[in-house]
Amino acid sequence: MSDSKIDRRSWLGGGTLALSAALGASVCSPLRGGEPEDALESTIRAASAFGMRPGASPGENRKALQAAIDWAAVRGGAILIEPTDEPYAVESGLLLRQNASLLGVNAAVPRSTSHPQRRHPVGSVFRIESTDRPFLTVESATQVRGLQFWYPDQTVRDPGKVIEYPPTIVRDPDKPVFGVTMAELTFFGDFITFDFTSAQASAGKVTELMRFEHCFAYPLSGRFIDIDYCYDIPRVLHCHVNPAIRRLADGGYSRDVIDGVVDRKTFAYRIDHTDNAQLMDLFTFGTWGGIRLGPATYGQLTNFNLDCVAVGIHKSGDNQFNRNWQIAQGSIIANAAGRIEDNHPIIIDGMGHTSLTAVESFCGPNGALSTPSVEIDGMQRTVSRDYLLIEGSDHATVSLFGCRMSNYLAENPITNNTPNAAVAAYGCFARRGYDAHALPFEVLPRVS
């Protein structure tokens, strides 16, 4: 489909299902009878109209796509990446200018699309091979939706051959960036997925109103979404990290590769210097850390599963005013560290308050990665060190409601190494090791 007018009619005529899915609320109805076909040409065009095509070189496609983005930015328009049976080879270094949207036709595909005869994804797919710079840099008021990003040269078997690609998508580091939407995106073979940090925050070059929704990857650095200095409510919603991400396209990651990702001791999700962050429905598997809530953050984290990690949640705080997190309805399996002593479902340090509601931990082996074990009752068992570790010297408060703490090695599920910390637990149950029953856990003796 190389004729942009034919393509546009196929999307906009009839039910407009693909474009409606790609644009969300931006397109609500098809062209009506009698309306000129060119009515949307001033705002929506196909990338092929600017010369991007599967058979072109990566440099040619980057130049064509950048020209398309430049065209869209002037008028607040969108560029459609048309689905093909061969991914578009595109050189890194694209700049998604303010007001422009980059759209594909795919919903998130967490086991990948797959060509019926060849081992690669199909649809709206970028083939990335550059190692010198990030693939895409975004400015304010931009949208990336419905696309796949494929690194065909990335290993799936040998941790010694991991290519440390630059981040796939980054924010413009030289200016403030406001109002960015990343949605329905899937990444295969990336090293760092999203880097939305800032080294120039003191100069006012911060971000605001970032939204990541329905994005899927398994970055081989362990770093999926990294946000720093994002004020005014960043949102991370319905996102998923899993080594089976590229299974149908070109194979799943080996146990050695997954162990190598864990050994990097990074967190899949990391935020700092944020106001009232909203984190909801998050998953990770096979990374050292699940979610790092930095010292200068507060907000809500709900509905999560942090599977096969060493540390599920690490929460810090740098003041007593508002470094408070409400964390609810989740499960953590902390079994991935090389030593059981390093497996902690939850770590809290610094100042502020943490409320844990219906947060469960349990532990056991998993064949996808290496897990340490210890002899318990004559059998080798995989356990975490404890449920909660409190460290540091600052005054912190922690409340637990309806939590179930299971399969830990310590005498007490809560290791409190902070004389100034105050802990209260209500309606909680504890099951040390592989005891037959979980018992009510209400009174918490202080551990000095």
What is the radius of gyration computed over CA atoms, rounded to a whole number of angstroms? 24 Å
Name of the CATH homologous superfamily of the largest domain: Single-stranded right-handed beta-helix, Pectin lyase-like
Structural class: mainly beta
- CATH architecture label name of the largest domain: 3 Solenoid
The CATH topology assignment of the largest domain is Pectate Lyase C-like
Euclidean distance between termini CA atoms: 69 Å
Contiguous uncertain segments of 5+ residues: 1-18, 20-37
Helix content: 10-25%
The total of helices stands at 5
Question: How does the overall form come out from the CA principal axes?
Answer: globular
The main sheet comes to: 27 strands, parallel
Q: What's the number of domains?
A: 2
Strand content: 35-45%
**Mind telling me the CATH class of the largest domain?**
Mainly Beta
- DSSP strand tally: 32
Average predicted confidence as pLDDT = 91
